[in-house]
UniProtKB/TrEMBL annotation, chain A:
Reaction it catalyzes: N(6)-[(R)-lipoyl]-L-lysyl-[protein] + 3-methyl-2-oxobutanoate + H(+) = N(6)-[(R)-S(8)-2-methylpropanoyldihydrolipoyl]-L-lysyl-[protein] + CO2
Cofactor (UniProt): thiamine diphosphate
Domain Transketolase-like pyrimidine-binding span(s) in chain numbering: 54-229
Gene behind the chain: LOC101859994
Pfam families to which the protein is assigned, alphabetical: Transket_pyr, Transketolase_C
SUPFAM superfamilies assigned to the protein according to its UniProt record, in alphabetical order: Thiamin diphosphate-binding fold (THDP-binding), TK C-terminal domain-like
Gene3D superfamilies per UniProt: 3.40.50.920, 3.40.50.970
EC number(s) recorded for this UniProt protein: 1.2.4.4
Enzyme class per UniProt: oxidoreductase
Matching InterPro entries: THDP-binding (IPR029061), Transketo_C/PFOR_II (IPR009014), Transketolase-like_Pyr-bd (IPR005475), Transketolase_C (IPR033248)
Keywords: Oxidoreductase
CDD domains: TPP_PYR_E1-PDHc-beta_like (cd07036)
PANTHER family: 2-OXOISOVALERATE DEHYDROGENASE SUBUNIT BETA, MITOCHONDRIAL, 2-OXOISOVALERATE DEHYDROGENASE SUBUNIT BETA-RELATED
Protein name: 3-methyl-2-oxobutanoate dehydrogenase (2-methylpropanoyl-transferring)
TrEMBL record, chain B:
Name recorded for this polypeptide: Pyruvate dehydrogenase E1 component subunit alpha
Keywords from the named record: Oxidoreductase, Pyruvate, Thiamine pyrophosphate, Transit peptide
The EC number(s) this enzyme carries: 1.2.4.1
Function recorded in the entry: The pyruvate dehydrogenase complex catalyzes the overall conversion of pyruvate to acetyl-CoA and CO(2).
Catalytic activity annotation: N(6)-[(R)-lipoyl]-L-lysyl-[protein] + pyruvate + H(+) = N(6)-[(R)-S(8)-acetyldihydrolipoyl]-L-lysyl-[protein] + CO2
Top EC group: oxidoreductase
A Pfam family: E1_dh
Entries under SUPFAM superfamilies matching the protein: Thiamin diphosphate-binding fold (THDP-binding) (SSF52518)
The species this protein was found in: Aplysia californica (California sea hare)
Highest taxon listed in the record's lineage: Eukaryota
Domain Dehydrogenase E1 component, residue spans: 64-356
Keyword tRNA processing: no
Co-factor requirement: thiamine diphosphate
Length: 375, 386
């Protein structure tokens, strides 16, 4: 596989290039670009033992490696995954586990997911990759009508709980309309599915293993901008992290900031800015699981702070922030000191030339905080 | 060795036997060319294997193919300089398909294709400047810079579609519209060998045949669906037969004259009989997209061999010079013109104005409800739309 390493190295370099235009007005070749957030590595839990330096895609590989090793029924398939995948997440796994267990599929998203549902119906473990979350929609019918409902409609006689669908998602700096979307809220409407979006390597590995082993069909959305930019000391062994449990990643007292995926990092920076510029103490929550989600951690925080801002890259209207906001107003009505604020993607298609303007960056988030504290 | 190379060798022979005219008749106005035999599925007769063409056609096809090649090379360079953003899929190697097909249809006929759309956009009437400026996201781009590489359009050219296979059923719908409006026009719906494995194609074939729609389905078989070769992705790689009950036709997609003749035949056929499926055997020199170097799943030698033995432009040049239709000097002059035009277009594409920011909010709906505003990142941003 080492000889194949070059395949999409440039691809991933460019895709996950982490760079973003700061000057869209620039008309020269040397238009300056920079990341729209800084990645802050986290510290692994002592409980999980020995660690190694891994980036996000390597932690995904590590999770799948362990899943394949510990479960002989597990198979991994998708477009170009036998080569290691366009984002390099499955590098080496075909050599290690054989072409019967790690294989390329045709370009057939509906087929990939349906095939995976079939495998999972027999009790085998299916790990399916959709190359970009933007391409998952041909498979939407299978996920919504088959995967999500199988258990319910059969009175628990059958299920495809051993299915996990992985898909790279969210903005990458220049992905334009069909390589940038955050699709979580489409699936949040489908009871029976689990939807998860990790924020970094340590978390991704533990959550992916949890998804693969969870007996419900899971959609695991990997923010592609993190594949190379997020590097941490990741436990090399087998560990799982709990699904449907949010993380308080920064503690604070004045405003609760809620996000998931890449946006958590934007919020972490916004919290620092708010402290520095406004002397406002923010509590940052990574929701982690979109479905089912951790209401308790959120409401507990909002009851403490009384003010809340939710932020995601997906368009604001009917983004998952709407559900979180509705729940907060009902559960925390008497604790709220200000209306719930949302800072999200625009209600437009993801733009080709206006990405920098579309994004809910830290400055827009800071404005949101100003509003909730000055209400 | 991949079957594409086997095709390559036999094709090379065909080109040699195909040269009919002597080398010195530079004043000839017409020549004849023998194409590689077509393969037929559910067809009693196929297109002509002897193709007659004029000097004007020779010059036009050569210039168009050359223009696409140089435009794509330029686009690749602009991408590497980070002037083109987004995704970028180059057509180099496949020029004969677009140029040959366009030569056999009229501007009133329709075309819809996938994301490898630059060449088709050009032959459907958009200038090189319009293509390159779209790639660089400028106002002067053919979609005002809002589409980028995968999304280019012109009259009766419906794009430019990002989702693999999604354009094919649309093509059936467009063909239905032509038939319903009693127009003598057809729709060409193109897809790749990778997309041939998408389920919605077969829904489209069924509807097209059921209702005898004037649709020419075209599989541009360039040998690879992204990084996976056709043989590894398809249970049947005889794509021209995969329409089952839809008659099919295999054509050498590296021979512009063969493509033109096949398309002429197909247009005539579909207007009388309903859909046909053409498989055009071609090759892509670049990777799937700019992020794929394109050399990990095939050898450099394979690409080199195709360039030497099957290249649609190089071989056509030999044919038309040997046929005495065009001189070396004329070719040189054409190439200089092409280089100049693309060079000037590239400069404009770098310096043309970008769209004003309010365009972020336009073209979401036509005639939006009165006073409708588009919400931005939060409830403080409500922008006008139109």
């Amino acid at each position: 596989m080492a000889t194949k390493m070059g395949l999409f190295r440039i691809a991933a370099n460019q895709l996950a290039c982490l760079l973003k235009q700061t000057s869209l007005r620039g008309t020269t070749a040397s238009s300056t670009r920079c990341m729209h957030f800084n990645y802050v590595p986290e510290t692994p839990s002592q409980d999980h033992g020995e660690t190694a330096r891994m980036n996000f895609f390597q932690s995904i590989t590590s999770a799948m490696d362990i899943a394949m090793a510990s479960d002989p029924s597990a198979v991994l398939f998708g477009e170009d995954v036998a080569f290691g995948g366009v984002f390099r997440c499955s590098v080496g796994l075909k050599d290690k586990y054989g072409a019967e267990r790690v294989f390329n599929s045709p370009l057939s998203e509906q087929g990939i997911v349906a095939f995976g549902i079939g495998i999972a119906l027999t009790g085998s473990t299916a790990i399916a990759e959709i190359q970009f979350a933007d391409y998952i929609f041909p498979a939407f019918d299978q996920l919504r009508s088959e995967a999500a409902m199988y258990r319910y409609r059969s009175g628990d006689l059958y299920d495809c709980g051993k299915l996990t669908v992985r898909a790279p998602c969210s903005a990458v700096g220049h992905g334009a309309l069909y390589h940038s979307q955050s699709v979580e809220s489409f699936f949040a409407h489908c009871s029976g599915l689990k939807v998860v979006m990790p924020r970094g390597p340590i978390q991704a590995k533990g959550l992916l293993l949890a998804c693969i082993r969870d007996n419900n069909p899971c959609i695991f959305l990997e923010p592609k901008v993190l594949y190379r930019s997020a590097i941490e000391e990741v436990p090399v062994g087998d560990y799982e992290l709990p699904l449907s449990q949010a993380d308080v990643i920064v503690e604070g007292t004045d405003v609760t900031l809620i996000g998931w995926g890449t946006q958590v990092h934007v919020l972490r920076e916004t919290a620092a800015l708010a402290q520095q510029k406004l002397n406002v103490s923010c509590e940052v929550i990574d929701l982690v699981s979109i479905l089912p989600w951790d209401v308790e951690t959120v409401t507990k925080s909002v009851e403490k702070t009384g003010r809340v801002m939710i932020s995601h890259e997906a368009p604001i209207t009917m983004g998952f922030g709407a559900e979180v906001a509705a729940t907060i107003q009902r559960e925390c009505f008497l604790s709220l000191e200000a209306p719930v604020e949302r800072v999200c993607g625009h209600d437009t298609p993801f733009p080709h030339v206006f990405e920098a303007f579309y994004m809910p960056d830290k400055w827009r988030c800071l404005e949101g905080i100003k509003k909730v504290v000055s209400y | 060795m991949l079957s594409s190379l086997r095709i390559g060798r036999s094709l090379a022979n065909s080109w040699i036997t195909g040269v009919i005219q002597g080398a010195h008749l530079s004043t000839a106005s017409e020549a004849s060319h023998t194409v590689m035999p077509y393969k037929l599925h559910l067809l009693e007769n196929g297109p002509n294997t002897e193709v007659t063409y004029t000097r004007e056609e020779a010059l036009k096809f050569y210039k168009q193919m050359r223009m696409i090649r140089v435009m794509e090379t330029t686009a690749g360079n602009l991408y590497k300089s980070k002037i083109i953003r987004g995704f970028c899929h180059l057509y180099s190697g496949q020029e004969a398909v677009a140029v040959g097909m366009e030569a056999a249809i009229t501007p009133q006929d329709s075309v819809i294709t996938a994301y490898r759309a630059h060449g088709w956009t050009y032959v459907r009437g958009i200038s090189v400047h319009g293509v390159l400026a779209e790639l660089t996201g400028r106002k002067t781009g053919c979609a005002n810079g809002k589409g980028g590489s995968m999304h280019m359009y012109s009259p009766n050219f419906f794009g430019g579609n990002g989702i693999v296979g999604a354009q094919v059923p649309l093509g059936a719908g467009i063909a239905f519209a032509h038939k319903y409006q009693e127009q003598d026009n057809v729709c060409i719906a193109l897809y790749g060998d990778g997309a041939a494995n998408q389920g919605q194609l077969y829904e489209a074939f069924n509807m097209a045949k059921l209702w005898d729609l004037p649709c020419i389905f075209v599989c541009e078989n360039n040998g690879f669906g992204m990084g996976t070769s056709a043989e590894r992705a398809a249970a049947s790689t005889t794509y021209y037969k995969r329409g089952d009950y839809v008659p099919g036709l295999w054509v050498d997609g590296m021979d512009v004259l063969a493509v033109k003749e096949a398309t002429r035949f197909a247009k005539d056929f579909v207007l009388k009989n309903g859909p046909i499926l053409i498989e055009a055997a071609t090759y892509r020199y670049h990777g799937h997209s700019m992020s794929d170097p394109g050399t990990s799943y095939r050898t450099r030698e394979e690409i080199q061999e195709v360039r030497q033995t099957r290249d649609p432009i190089g071989k056509f040049k030999e044919v038309i010079i040997n046929a005495g239709l065009v001189t070396n000097e004329e070719i040189k002059k054409l190439e200089d013109e092409v280089k100049k035009e693309v060079g000037e277009a590239a400069e404009l594409a770098k310096t043309d104005p970008e769209l004003p920011l309010n365009e972020l909010y336009t073209h979401i709906y036509v005639d939006p409800p009165k006073d409708m505003k588009v919400r931005g990142c939060d409830d403080s941003i409500w922008s006008d739309t139109r």
